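Exam revision sheet. Question 4 asks you to relate a sequence to its structure. Input first:
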Amino acid sequence: MVIGIPKEIKVQEGRVAMTPDGVFELTRRGHEVYVQKGAGVESNLPDKSYVKAGASILDRIEDVYEIADMIVKVKEPIESEYHLIKKDQVVFTYFHFASDKKLTEAMLSSGAVCIAYETVMIDKDGSLPLLTPMSEVAGRLSVQQGAKYLEKPQGGKGILLGGVPGVKPAEVVIIGGGVVGHNAAQMAAGLGAKVKLLDVNLNRLRYLSEVLPANVNTLYSTEMSITDSVKTADLVIGATLLVGAKAPHLIKREMLKEMTPGTVMIDVSVDQGGCFETTHPTTHINPTYEVDGIIHYCVANIPGAVPITSTRALTNATLPYVIKLVESGWENACRQYPDLRYGLNIVKGDVVFKNVADSLDLPYTALKL
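Answer key, structure tokens:
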């Protein structure tokens, strides 16, 4: 099979979908890998390291799409890439279709096979192996960014997250106890903050209560408990997820009026439409905006801020699945591996993932492999 690795062109996205290690694993199996020039530079992976691993370097993104049977990316294709995707081409990347109807319609029109990292799921426990590493990064980084934007020069309240002896620490509220929430709570607690972690899954709350430090308090999530919690919060982190579907708005605009000006809200769910009613996507160039005096940080590719870490964490998880796809072909691979089959979102003009179809009010087609 011929695999193409284009350079990510989303604003300030320095991750790359494959390392030279991955290239070597594919080329030694007899596959061809084409990497766009400079694709790995921001992840400290120069072109020469890819060539040494057996890849060919192409100057133009158009050439990568044209030659490849399968495109492996990090972020969803942006508008300038839509026309490059060919009929029957396999595209393996983060898509987050439920929050982007224009992207969905473009991929339907392309006739491509779209396999989304974020919905690959292990049946046994419902875990998301290709979303997990970036959720870990995003959860930890959300606290780091929150601590920065609480500083007065950044427009925040002027509070040190962990406080000092004799001065109380900041109060951090985390909505969602999944991988993002768990990692955010670990970071915030480690810095000495007072943490409230909300979720609707009691078994998950029991587990988190056992494994997290004593300065993390778990709370059952309801509209009233969220409303009461955010009133006194200094930092609010939204970390909810419905697999393949649009995130629910758990913080309504009217709640902001009861919060203290300078409070920071970070929406890690922004890729799926955001869990704050006032969320709209931002970039690392202009990451924040204010609504009713509340600072919103809604960067749609948070892990892209640390590409050296993120690229390695992501490709450690994706490479085994890439190998399955190229060795067996997408149909056989998805037939053999149920976790990979969950990743199928669009197949040759049909939406085959129900949550995507329901979120965008599009026809759903049950896929029979």
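Marking note for examiners. The radius of gyration is 21 Å.
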